[in-house]
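Researcher: We are triaging several targets before committing to wet-lab work. For this one, the compound of interest is magnesium ion. I'm pasting the protein sequence and the ligand SMILES. What I need is the predicted three-dimensional arrangement of the protein with the ligand bound, expressed as structure tokens, so it can go straight into our comparison scripts without reformatting.
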Amino acid sequence: MRATSIRTRLLAAFLIVAVVAAAGLSFYFLKELEGFALRKLEERLHTQARVLAAVASTTYLDGTGRFSATDARQIQAALDQATPYAASRMRVLDVEGAAIADTTPGDVGDPYGDRIEVKRALAGEYGAATRITELGRVALYVAVPIEQDGQVRGAVYASSTTFSIVTLLATYRTRLIIVIALFIVVTLVLTELLSRWLSRPLQSLSATATAFAAGDHAVRATPSGSRETRMLASAFNAMGDEVDHVVTELKQEERRKSRFVSDVSHELRTPLTAIRGTAETLLEGDVPEQDERRFLETIIREADRLTRLANDLLTLQRIEGATGELPLRRIKLRDTAERAVGALAPLTDARGVQVSIVGDAPTVLGDVDRLQQVIANLVDNASRMTGAGGRVTVELGREGDFAVLSVLDEGPGIPEDALPHLFERFYRAQASRDRSTGGAGLGLAIVSAIARAHAGTITASNRPEGGSAFTMKLPVIAD
Ligand SMILES: Nc1ncnc2c1ncn2[C@@H]1O[C@H](COP(=O)(O)OP(=O)(O)O)[C@@H](O)[C@H]1O
Ligand SMILES: [Mg+2]
């Protein structure tokens, strides 16, 4: 079903209200008018009947207490004279209720004794009744007793018609139709204006929403119109901001992901190309004995690089994708540092670098394997950058509520423009040189992810005396 417009609904509501109000009010006022006319008429008939009764009782009644034929003729003669001016019909009735004189000639003798108002008058009281005539008019009947010496001798019976609602409606039908038509026209015009006024802000809002849906996330609604439409516009704008924000974030996330995928592909390609090329050369068969061994070593080295890359990616994914909490234990960073340095000893010795651990740090909560991985990664980088004959120092301490672990080296330091990117995935400051020596640039990304998972921070800086410093801070647990 098609939804009805505001205009149609308003029109329906207006018409109902108008018709109900107009009909109700008209009925009420017409009823009042009818009642008023009846009261006025009754007053008039009453007075006239009283006057006639008084006159009849004093002038025309003889001693017998009954109207004689002469009396009747005289009264009739008097009434005949009044007939042309009478707006009402007057009858004089005898004690039985039979008409002895009537302003409408020819009906003398009609019996009215069984009418309720006449019965009352003949019982010495005032009687009145209304009836609806065949023409739809209201007829009022008033009867008063004719009394002499306290005895009822007859009655004056007066009647007249007045307008009823029905006659009023019939009389004014054409005018009523015109009024109703005017009413409807005014209602239509009002509805049109009102519905335009009410729906204009909604239409503009709807246009804005359509534009938004079509992809223009910058459009905003201008609050206008009633309080409700203003609220709607504000709510729409708030929603727009939210959607805009989410879409921007999703796009960024999308870009990060696709860059990640292309970075990974790139990292895979180099060792794979090397392995393939070397294997092909070996296949050709005419390789000198001493080169053959070198080629096989290359294949193993590149395969190792691939394994490292796969491991690093898996580690990163595990840390950053982890939903649950880390398995936390109380950790003495000094012990962890010693274990990490010990495990790296064959490597650092081969590089000719001397690694030492100084100071101590307060106990922290953490995942001991992950923290050992942080230290190992930092010491690996530091010893690689320092080179033979240099020294690397792991320094432990405390700063406020944080345990501090720094790895200091005597290498070349970090270029200023590399500092902000150091902890990004696949970032290598000296790409050409590190390709052979280092990893894929995931080490510091892993370090940073582990530090964040421990509610800690990691920063890199250049030491004034030369070399670089990598500093991790972890919150100390209250004992
Ligand atoms: N101690 C350091 N001194 C100078 N540069 C460093 C040091 N440690 C890391 N870097 C720079 O940061 C880059 C990223 O390090 P990392 O994430 O561990 O990747 P990778 O070790 O695989 O190269 C390195 O390529 C290097 O350029
Ligand atoms: Mg590294």
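Researcher: Any quick observations?
Model: Residues 377, 381-382, 385, 409, 411, 414, 422, 427-430, 434, 438-445, 468 surround adenosine-5'-diphosphate (ligand 1) (CB under 6 Å).
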